[in-house]
Amino acid sequence: MKNQKAIVFDIDGTILDMKELIFRGYSNTFAIHKLGNITWKKLTPLMGNPLEECYRMLTKKKDVEIFCQTHWGFQKKNLNLAKPFLNTKKTLKALKEKNIKIAAFTSRSKRTSIDTLRNADILKYFDCVISREDVLFPKPNPEGLIKALKEMKVLQKNSYMVGDALVDIQVGKKIKIPTVGAAYGFLGKDILRHKPDYIIEDISEIIKVVNTD
Question: What per-residue string of b and e applies to 173-197 under the rule 16 or more CB within 10 Å gives b?
């Protein structure tokens, strides 16, 4: 549809509050493999990158498969730790009532991303979910964003990319669609340093952004 609008959301730190699940996943892995201490200060700049790349940067090792398997194993058993942010469900419902299409583009695996959205009772609001396995090149490459828009049959000029990390802003800027920084996510107001076109401090504010354009 020529005038159909769409919003592509990052999941972790934008749709779902993943802080406890993510930090405990890393701390559990670091403890099991005797990798030393891990802190949020070390993790925050890495958010939005594929898990393998995060472990490479954290451990300075090339082969991180065993660390990722441990991390994924913990996540699989503790998906209940992922919680939707306040107003998330209400906002997604309102967007659908306005006939706005909704997609998710995440660096996380298809299995866990789908499961956490389902557990939060919000999977039904998404027209498509693009995960790590769906692309050859992860964020900040815009391949997944372009794929989501094609699946929804929405023009780039009528779309928005919403996220809480640098890579989320980068993917939107690379195909010249409006970017929305989620200042309630992992970076907080530091997301402003990456110059998104809009900033929101609560997910519900995305409705005003879409209505303004």
Answer: bbeebbbbbbbbbbbeeebeebebb
